[in-house]
From TrEMBL:
Superkingdom field: Bacteria
Keyword Signal applies: yes
Keywords, alphabetical: Signal
Protein name listed in UniProt: SH3 domain-containing protein
Region (Disordered): 25-60
Signal peptide: 1-22
Amino acid sequence: MHVGIKLGVGVAGVALAGTVLGAGGAAGAGEQPPPRPAQQGAQAKPPHDNEEGHGPGAIKVGAKGAAKAMHRLMVRDELRQRWCHGRVLPSGGLNLREGPGLRYRVVRVLKHGSQVTTDWDTVQRRDGYLWVRLPDKFWIADYKTGDGNGKWYIRYSDCH
């Protein structure tokens, strides 16, 4: 059985630390294919940190900002923007994975300041993060939902 939910974020976006984020997407609750096993020596080793974004630098939004971000994701908005451009915030980088979740293999770690383009029609909420696909079909966790104090790993500058 496959259940899907369409989510969206308004064009106005969420204003965080002087940055306006505008995005939207779809989340699916269906089963994903199992991750491929890691090939010995092929996987880049992420820094020793249990979080997808490594080191300081993420934009922390506090409880009110997290609630606002999650509410906007639940409201369908036909004017949402699909492609969003931004830069990796955490000083130690951000994991790039084969799929949308922690069970997928880390392909490499994107360096701080790396430019990314995300497809917000693919956004999925899983394992305490919002996952979005990049044009190369790999995935990043660009938002950590946390315990009411979420944080963004990407500083978005352009969504169209």
